[in-house]
């Protein structure tokens, strides 16, 4: 729900879940009952009915309500200047709602179709009385690359400088026509000029969720990838678009072009101060900065204790290297042992996520299982963000639509072939692991039977996209009815590769995100194919994060043991004795 600025009206969503199928989860340890506890969830899987969503406005003054969506039952009046464009009730998602007024006169909202490749922005002009409300479609966006709409809550109302100007203006993050998301000022009325006024431009992207509009100072702060898609920096630009774009200022960019950094920022309610988080590549720090005084800085956290602690450890070093697949340049992050010697031969573990719009390779600081493997076991850990991943423009990510698991698998295999050819890599000891979408990728790579990987480790993987939620899945795969061949090919169906590679499958039985059904069905396929070269571990009542009842610690012991056995590394025996069966600190899984 969204209150109008003057608190006289309330916009709210209504979601009717009546037709949404139920999913049942059983919990075996939650109580002492002899029968398991059961949780029932309304969970729309790909192709099944979604909640029916409608947008309403309630007036406190008149105690009346009006519905501004539903092409069959709307009781708002269609704007005289343009026919209202809408989706059927069963084919509508509402993705953004914002009051575009300082009182209660206008409301903006975005909707997409179910498969999320058409986006409509509509303006609601609130009537007095309420039944005189009008609605008009002001902007329709359909990507011309066959990809999906990247939805986020990005609209920000901008008051006019002249009180006599009744035009509704707003700031939004939209496609600049070249496949990069940029800041633009738009006018909502269909009678007004439709051309966006661009505040930013270029072959880089503004990060959704980072845009802060300071109306009093007429400033916009945002985080972008302008310096590098592997970095994040905080920028400031004047909201008065009549001024040149040269007024843009980077507040965190180092003078040295060879120096890398990754920042995030959180602003105070009146935007006069912000918390600046330095997130890497060195140890993170957090300070408070003042918008009107560049010299003001107060340290919240310098992580001195962590800095001192890590001086006693030999940490791996990380380097970014490009690698190609099908003529496409990809980013790879290589974590090397502290005593790395190019004349030696090292095992390599690929850490993959690979989901659409995601990113693992960056200059963020990280202490993780990869750190342990490189420092203690002397393994190289490689992360490759292949096609489909984010922050490199639409062209790089949209090609996976309708065929998840195809291009991403090709890219991981081609990257592994590249590392197998390097003089410091033992080509007989290459493995791949991932969690969630990464577990799916690890499974698809093993299914591909490339002969490159000695082992695959999959935690909480999707194994058939028909089992996953409708909103996420259909954005990338359409519905099963529209794309049956795509769903069949994207599922883990061919068991031949599993016969030739060691495979570990891990899943929590209480996973309400990626259901345990995914693992159960894959085990059945392996059983029917008489595959024996795999291991399965379930964690009772654990959800997607696997943290219940010591689950997380046990997951990483299991992963490490399985990887060591797959690589035949005798050095791990010494490490286990040294650690006395326990890791030096908590390790967390990527999602």
From TrEMBL:
Q: Name one GO cellular component term.
A: vacuolar membrane
Q: What is this protein called?
A: Dipeptidyl aminopeptidase
Family the entry assigns? Belongs to the peptidase S9B family.
Task: Supply the source organism for this entry.
Answer: Actinomucor elegans
> Mind listing the UniProt keywords for this protein, alphabetically?
Aminopeptidase, Glycoprotein, Hydrolase, Membrane, Protease, Serine protease, Signal-anchor, Transmembrane, Transmembrane helix
Decide whether keyword Transmembrane is in the record.
yes
| Gene3D superfamilies associated with the record | alpha/beta hydrolase, Dipeptidylpeptidase IV, N-terminal domain
Q: What is the lineage of its organism?
A: Eukaryota, Fungi, Fungi incertae sedis, Mucoromycota, Mucoromycotina
Membrane topology note: Single-pass type II membrane protein
Name where it mostly resides. membrane
Q: Which domain of life is it from?
A: Eukaryota
């Amino acid at each position: 729900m969204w209150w109008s600025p003057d608190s006289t009206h309330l916009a709210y969503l209504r979601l009717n879940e009546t037709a949404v199928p139920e999913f049942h989860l059983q919990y075996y340890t939650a109580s002492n009952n002899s029968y398991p506890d059961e949780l029932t969830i309304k969970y729309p899987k790909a192709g099944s009915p979604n909640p029916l969503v409608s947008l309403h406005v309630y007036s406190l003054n008149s105690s009346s309500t009006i519905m501004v969506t539903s092409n069959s039952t709307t009781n708002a009046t269609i704007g005289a200047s343009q026919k209202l464009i809408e989706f059927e009730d069963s084919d509508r998602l509402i993705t953004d709602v914002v009051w575009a007024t300082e009182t209660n006169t206008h409301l903006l909202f975005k909707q997409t179709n179910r498969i999320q490749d058409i986006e409509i922005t509509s303006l609601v002009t609130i009537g007095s009385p309420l039944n005189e409300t009008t609605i008009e479609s002001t902007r329709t966006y359909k990507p011309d690359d066959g990809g999906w709409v990247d939805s986020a809550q990005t609209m920000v109302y901008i008051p006019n400088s002249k009180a006599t100007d009744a035009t509704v203006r707003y700031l939004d993050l939209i496609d600049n026509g070249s496949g990069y998301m940029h800041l633009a000022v738009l006018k909502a009325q269909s009678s007004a000029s439709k051309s966006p006024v661009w505040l930013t431009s270029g072959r880089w992207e503004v990060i959704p969720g980072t845009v802060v509009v300071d109306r009093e100072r007429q400033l916009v702060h945002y985080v972008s990838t302008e310096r590098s898609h592997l970095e994040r920096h905080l920028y400031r630009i004047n909201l008065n678009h009549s001024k040149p774009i040269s007024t843009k200022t980077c507040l965190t960019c180092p003078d040295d072009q060879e120096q890398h950094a990754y920042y995030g920022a959180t602003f105070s309610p009146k935007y006069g101060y912000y918390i600046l988080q330095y997130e890497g590549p060195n140890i993170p720090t957090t300070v408070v900065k003042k918008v009107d005084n560049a010299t003001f800085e107060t340290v919240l956290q310098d992580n001195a204790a962590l800095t001192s602690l890590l001086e006693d450890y030999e940490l791996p070093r990380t380097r970014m290297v490009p690698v190609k697949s099908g003529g496409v340049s990809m980013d790879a992050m290589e974590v090397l042992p502290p005593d790395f010697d190019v004349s030696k031969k090292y095992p390599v573990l690929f850490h993959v996520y690979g989901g659409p719009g995601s990113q693992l390779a960056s200059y963020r600081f990280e202490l993780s299982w990869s750190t342990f493997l490189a420092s203690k076991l002397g393994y190289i850990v490689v992360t490759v963000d292949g096609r489909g991943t984010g922050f490199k423009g639409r062209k790089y990510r949209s090609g996976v639509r309708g065929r998840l698991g195809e291009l991403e698998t090709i890219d991981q295999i081609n990257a592994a072939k590249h590392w197998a050819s390097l003089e410091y890599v033992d080509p007989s000891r290459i493995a791949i692991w991932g969690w969630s979408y990464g577990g799916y990728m690890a499974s698809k790579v093993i299914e591909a039977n490339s002969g490159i990987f000695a082992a695959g480790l999959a935690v909480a993987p999707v194994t058939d996209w028909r089992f996953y939620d409708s909103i996420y899945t259909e954005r990338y795969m359409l519905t099963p009815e529209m794309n049956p061949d795509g769903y069949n090919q994207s599922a883990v169906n061919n068991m031949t590769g599993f016969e030739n590679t060691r495979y570990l499958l891990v899943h929590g039985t209480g996973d309400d995100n990626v259901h345990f059904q995914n693992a159960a069905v894959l085990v059945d396929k392996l059983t029917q194919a008489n595959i024996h070269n795999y291991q399965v571990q379930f964690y009772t009542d654990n959800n997607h994060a696997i943290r219940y009842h010591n689950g997380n610690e046990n997951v990483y012991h299991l992963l490490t043991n399985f990887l060591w056995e797959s690589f035949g590394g005798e050095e791990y025996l010494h490490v286990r004795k040294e650690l006395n069966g326990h890791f030096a600190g908590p390790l967390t899984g990527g999602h």
